[in-house]
């Protein structure tokens, strides 16, 4: 039994005696208790070390959660995006997601994991060190809590895979494949790894008391802001918005959204890194928030446009998954309903009214769903984490809703500014060195043929 389990069982159903009874019985019982006290002192070191003993139940769950999160990118996100682009670009989006999965896996192995999670002498509040480059010291026997470090590393790798892949939807149908690969490589190193370290690797946002259980800032706001910057810098697709650009296969999109929904249980419940009650609640609130958001978007669209759409309800579900991500380890069921409903309605208006008002061409609404959903979820986490509202409590140093919401604002603002500025600088340099966008002839022909010499559909 682990220390966690010992603590849980020892707390259940106990009652503390009054002060007078403790005083009266102390001298008469001390001799009787002395052998047990000595035994407890001898046992204490082994109990303290118990947290570092491999737990097969936790390990089995984390192996499963890791596979679920990887399944979210390929095929989940790949199909979700591929169904929404035009038929001449379907393979290009699938290729981008697949190539990112392979490339980010190697870069995470080479230096990403070390930069994000290295806790040696060179680590600090802003970036990790390089002592674990090429997974040095990560062996069969090394542990991270109660699971093998290899499992923890691979679980975190799947987050490093899906976060850059999310950005693809913002510049779909117009970015060079070669430039995309270079951009994602630099972005993982310069943007994702530092922000991951800030929140989860012992960095300054974690010390600030931010609550981000599974990646509202690290994954969704980070990717959503980078996507918006990329969409603006590349410019609008030829013909947008005057030319109709309908999805080529909404069947792909709903299948992809369904895979994301299922895989997200690994994303959120897996972030507890243990098979326990917190993981169970994270799974429950993930389902509840997603359902509320899907219906929130559906009814918003129904009222605004007269009919609910398949694309709308699928987008709403993803918006709910995004918003509950930072909150999944901190809020209760009713908090999940509120966060889900707020994200479904809020992301609907961001992806429609807001996008039309500002005129940017975020092809597949990466900003409207991931950045906006992440912001809604991150801020509302600070509210619904309150125990009075069914949550599990605030982060370190925060004792009120106001204090926790301020911490959440700091995390959101820091991520927006850093991701936005860094992404802009990286793209600006790449534009000067190798160019960002395919030429007009390639864009008209479609990226499937122009960049990959293949067709998604044989006519």
Short description, anyone?
With 459 residues, this protein is mostly helical.
Chain-wise SSE layout:
Blueprint: H1 3-11, H2 19-49, H3 56-82, H4 90-117, E1 143-144, E2 147-148, H5 149-167, H6 177-200, H7 204-208, H8 216-234, H9 250-269, H10 277-305, H11 310-324, H12 333-358, H13 366-384, H14 401-433, H15 440-445, H16 447-452
Antiparallel strand pairs: 1-2
Would you write up a description of this structure?
- The chain has two domains: 19-52, no CATH class; 57-452, Ammonium transporter AmtB like domains (Ammonium transporter fold, Orthogonal Bundle).
- It is 69% helix and 1% strand.
- The chain has 16 helices and two strands.
- A hairpin with a 2-residue loop joins strand 1 and strand 2.
CATH superfamily of the largest domain: Ammonium transporter AmtB like domains
For the record, give the distance between the C-alpha atoms at the N and C termini, rounded to a whole number.
Answer: 62 Å
Named at the architecture level, the CATH assignment of the largest domain is Orthogonal Bundle
Strand order across the largest sheet: 1-2
Which CATH class of the largest domain applies here? Mainly Alpha
The largest pleated sheet is described as: 2 strands, antiparallel
Compute the CA-based radius of gyration.
Answer: 24 Å
Mean pLDDT over the residues:
90
**Shape designation:** globular
Residue fraction in strands: under 5%
Kindly state the percentage of residues in helix: 55-70%
Indicate how many domains the architecture comprises.
Answer: 2
Number of strands: 2
Structural class: mainly alpha
CATH topology of the largest domain: Ammonium transporter fold
Query: Can you tell me the residue ranges where pLDDT is under 50 for at least 5 consecutive residues?
Result: 1-50
DSSP helical segment count: 16
